[in-house]
Design goal:
- The model has no long low-confidence stretch (mean pLDDT about 90).
- The protein is of the alpha/beta class.
- Helices cover about 30% and strands about 20% of the residues.
- It is globular, with a radius of gyration of 14 Å.
- It has a single domain (about 5-130), classed as Rossmann fold, CATH 3.40.50.720.
- It has helices spanning about 15-25, 40-45, 80-90, 110-115; strands at about 5-10, 30-35, 50-55, 70-75, 100, 120.
- It is built from 4 helices and 6 strands.
Length: about 140
C-alpha cells in the first residue's frame, strides 16, 4: 500500500488539535480521529470528522489493528495518562512516526520511551507545519 493511501490518525481533545483537524480538512488529506469517550466522539462529529476510531483504553484485548491503514499519528496532549495509552495503542498499529504535541515539557522522555518519535512543545494553536514533515 502506498503512503498516500494511509490515514493520518489524530487525537484532538483540545483547541490546537481542533485547528489541526480543520487544516487536514482544508488540505483534503485522508485522516481519522481516535477517541476513548462519547463526549469527544460527539465533538469530533461536530467538527465534521468522517472516520472515528473509538477505543477502550482500559482493555488491551480490544486494541485490534483497525481496518483502515494507519500512517502518521498526531496526538494532542490533554492528559499524560491518556497520551501514554494512545502511544501504546497506536505504536502497535503503525511503524510510521508518532508525534505528541504538548504545552508542557514534563513528559518528553516518558513519551519517547513508549514509542513516540517526536515530542513537540508549543503554545501555538497552529501546528500545520507538522504536515510538511517527512517521516
Amino acid at each position: 500500500m502506498e503512503a498516500h493511501d494511509e490515514f493520518i490518525l489524530v487525537s484532538a481533545p483540545n483547541k490546537t488539535g481542533g485547528q489541526f483537524i480543520k487544516t487536514l480538512q482544508i488540505k483534503k488529506m485522508l485522516f481519522a480521529a481516535i477517541t476513548n469517550n462519547d463526549t469527544e466522539r460527539s465533538r469530533l462529529v461536530h467538527l465534521g470528522v468522517k472516520n472515528i476510531l473509538s477505543v477502550d483504553t482500559t482493555d488491551r484485548e480490544t486494541w485490534l489493528i483497525p481496518e483502515l491503514p494507519v500512517g502518521k499519528v498526531f496526538l494532542f496532549e490533554l492528559s499524560l495518562p491518556l497520551i501514554c495509552r494512545y502511544i501504546q495503542i497506536c505504536r502497535s498499529w503503525t511503524d510510521k512516526s508518532i508525534y505528541v504535541i504538548t504545552g508542557s515539557s514534563n513528559a518528553r522522555m516518558v513519551y519517547k520511551g513508549l514509542g513516540a518519535n517526536y515530542v513537540i512543545h508549543t503554545q501555538s494553536d497552529d501546528v500545520s507545519f507538522l504536515l510538511d514533515k517527512e517521516g
